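Recall that a protein's primary structure is simply its ordered list of amino acids. Everything else, from secondary elements to tertiary packing, is in principle encoded there. The following example makes that idea concrete.
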Amino acid sequence: MRATTSRCLQAICVRERQALIPKYAKSNVNFSGGTMSNWRHLCVIGVFALAWTGQHATAAALKDPVTFESHRGTLNLILTARAAPVLFGKVSTTGWVYEACLRASATAKTCIHGSETHPYGGVWLKLKRNDTLNIRLVNKLPIVSDAKHCADNPDLANNPTNLHTHGLIVEPHRSTGGNDPYGDYIFVEVRNTGNHGNCTPPATAASPTSMPTMARHGHPDTDVADNAVEYRISLVNHPSGMFWFHPHMHGVALNQVTSGLAGVISVGEPEDECQHDLQCIVAVRAGGSHVLVLKDSEVLADGTLLDQQDPGFCTGTAATGEALRQGVCAGSKDAGFEGGHWFHTVNGQVYPTVTIGEHGQLWRFVNASASRSYDLSLTTDDEKDGLPLQIFAIDGISIDAAMAADLPALQTQFGRKMTIFRCPQLPGAVPTEAVCTRHIRMMPSSRVTVRVVNDKAQARDAVLRTNDFRTGPDADDWPAIDLASVHLTPPAHSIAASYKISGAIRNVLSGDGVLGAVPSLMAPGALRPEPLDQVQKPANARLLTAAPHMHMATAYAIDPELKLGLREDPHCANLAKGEYRRIYFGNPTPGQDGFGLATVVVGADGKEKPDTATPMRVFDPTQTTVCLTASAVKGQATTEVWELINVTGEDHNFHIHQTRFSLLTSGPTQPNRIDETAVLQDNVPVLRAADVSGCDGRVQSFASGACKPTVVRVSIPFTQIGDFVFHCHILEHEDGGMMARIRVVAPPMHQATKQ
């Protein structure tokens, strides 16, 4: 069918498009049947697809995002969040983008002329292992007209913002003012002082103080009122991989990411995934790689870009007679979106073409959508369920395929992101431990790196597709869309079907790795993080007091003495042997639309400890839900086991900042030895129960047995000191309150010198 349509478009659409479109637009063509022949029916569908997408018969070649690369250990940028024109084919709209430019130094406030760019697809920041990323973030965003949570925080109408470097294992440093930039600290608001919007709460809405179940939207720990803030992100011994950046302004994160605010970060080179295997390195360099940033935008008939996604914008699967969904689906009349279009882009391009050379190619996927989930496959006419794709990395860190002797146990560690199997071998190829998949389940924020190779001797065409993806019986139904056209050239005679990748995880978790090293901290005025014992000196501790001109809320801020281990807090006691935490994803207002988290410590006897429980509640940044102390012993990070339980009727996506976790293959007390970990990730699906009739969002529904979801168990090492969060990365859920604050403090001074 696809080949027939292609021939029709070449023979008819190119030569007669101008004549055919008016003709069939005026005639009442019955697309579900009638007297038209099949080939003519398909051609008209193709013509209409071209007419409303504005795409040409031949799609443009995929281009990687515009890059900014570090030089001599640093990358100095200005990122300005602003509104800008966006063009999808012939459909024009206005989105929100990061205008990026180079600056001459880490403190410069102006751009180097000619370096400015603001692509909708986002920019790519290319860094190396121990680089420093210096960003000046400027807020020039317009007023947001439909912030969902204005009733709780009217200032959200003015569209404050901030920045999160998603997936980087770096300090969440809290600025003290002056020449002390922020690290990856999301409790800060950067305001656009030119905005003077307001939001009148509904007459029935209670105030935040009288409605404790309501999220305190906003991060008033630090208000930056001069439109800009400085960030310094130091990659201390950081592993290679693919990461990204986006706003994390609670209450409008959904609006800002949906409108286009996102970009990607890489550390190192694609061949680093090979972990020093020479054959793999040579092949990756020969075949090359692509970053594939997945973004989507819903545009109404009048050209307005919706800044909150509606999964019902078009139907989940293509209706009979509907135009081919090549990067776009038409707005549903029944849902009130007639005349609109839902564009699904790869690097900002609608339905580009990708060519796979004779040596194969690495694809580095990033789901930069706010709430949309993807079920990706690469299909051909003879392999409808998808070609085998070798898995290289999950969430930016290459997997350890050498630990794949027990395939079922390895499957558990992938967390239902994909179903794995041994990669098939080409004739004459040397067998490897490589694992493959045909479908990649990507919920918001996830990253996956795969190798694509033609396993047939002849050239052929394929389609990169996201299949229909439903997150619950009465929840979101994400539509099936063809994302890109793919041409597979015949493989080289000496090509291997897969390559060896292993070792990265052991390096990351070792005493010299970022998740095994003794903590270091950025002292005010320092250019690089310093060993903890140096920052703990009294003279440095005094420097952590905030500058008097900064607007800080002590209820939110971490006490510098507690942070540095100069005093102890009984509430930051670590778990006892055999204990673990249980995190409930639920609803604080059963029967109404709501999102929240509840936590409790489970004792070694398997029973919950009531005195440790926090109730099901929405995010409150004044409350520290989890507090623990980092380890002072090299190679022995403080590690906790968490049990994730979904008591709602829809899927969620657990994400935690500043670290990685591994999924346990058995019970919660399973030891977390380095040699048992094959996959490290920063987000994982927490799926609903098969029967959600008893899942009303309450903790009690699980305790009583009415709700029986699959329990997800993770082991999390903590080394980064400061305040950060864990949450569901479906941003509608995060903004709605499914987030909590975690605090990691330094070990007491008398322990900090241990090695």
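The chain has four domains: 1-58, 66-197+214-270, 276-502, 520-745. Residues 1-58 form one domain.
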